[in-house]
C-alpha cells in the first residue's frame, strides 16, 4: 500500500490521531478530513487542525452542521446532559453519524484519487453505537464501492483492540507521548488528560493505566 493514497477520518482525539500515524506508516500520501457538526467544543476542530499542521498532513474540514439540525444530541447541544441509561444508547449517540462520515470521506477520496479510507471506529470498548460495528463498516464499504463503482478499501485498525491496546499501538508507532499530550478526547473540551471525570476521560485513563501497568511504567 506504500504507493497509495488514503483519507483518514480525523477528529483530533486519541483514536483518530493514532489512526493518522498508522496511515502515515502505511501509505505514500495521507489526507485528513474532519467533520464540523457544531461539536460541543469547537476546540475539537482547532486541535485537529493544529495536529494535521504539525504533521504536515493536508487537512479538510467539511461542514456537517445538517447533522445537528436533524439530530440534536449531547455532543452538539450544551443543554443535553451526557449520560447513559441502563440498556440504552448514550446521549452522545448521533444517529447515522458514521454512515455520513464514511460516505463523505469516500466521496472526498474519490475526488482526490485516494483508494483507502481509514477510520478509528472500534467494537471493543464502544458505547453500543451500531454504526461502529465491523459488520456495518463492511456493508458500508460494499455499498460505497457500488455507488461510486470503484474498489475503495475502508481500514479500521482499531476495530478489535481495546483502549489499552490502542495506547500500545501509539507506542509501537513511536508516538505515545504525542498522543498523550496533544489529543482531545474529553467531552468537557480539555486537552491531553482531560477533566478526568467524563466517560471519555475515564475510558482513556483506564486504557492508559492498564497499558502502562502492563509495560511496567508508572503513569503518574
Ligand atoms: Zn473529560
From TrEMBL:
Record flagged with keyword Isomerase: no
Binding-site residues for Zn(2+), renumbered to this chain: 186, 195, 198, 201
EC nos: 6.3.4.20
Keywords attached to this entry: ATP-binding, Ligase, Metal-binding, Nucleotide-binding, Queuosine biosynthesis, Zinc
Binding of ATP, residues: 10-20
InterPro entries: QueC, Rossmann-like_a/b/a_fold
Any GO MF annotation of the entry: ATP binding
Pathway: Purine metabolism; 7-cyano-7-deazaguanine biosynthesis
Top enzyme category: ligase
Cofactor(s) demanded: Zn(2+)
GO biological process: tRNA queuosine(34) biosynthetic process
UniProt remark on cofactor binding: Binds 1 zinc ion per subunit.
Pfam families: QueC
UniProt catalytic activity: 7-carboxy-7-carbaguanine + NH4(+) + 2 ATP = 7-cyano-7-carbaguanine + 2 AMP + 2 diphosphate + 2 H(+)
Residue intervals passing through the bilayer: none
Its job: Catalyzes the ATP-dependent conversion of 7-carboxy-7-deazaguanine (CDG) to 7-cyano-7-deazaguanine (preQ(0)).
The family this protein is said to belong to: Belongs to the QueC family.
Quaternary structure (record): Homodimer.
Protein name: 7-cyano-7-deazaguanine synthase
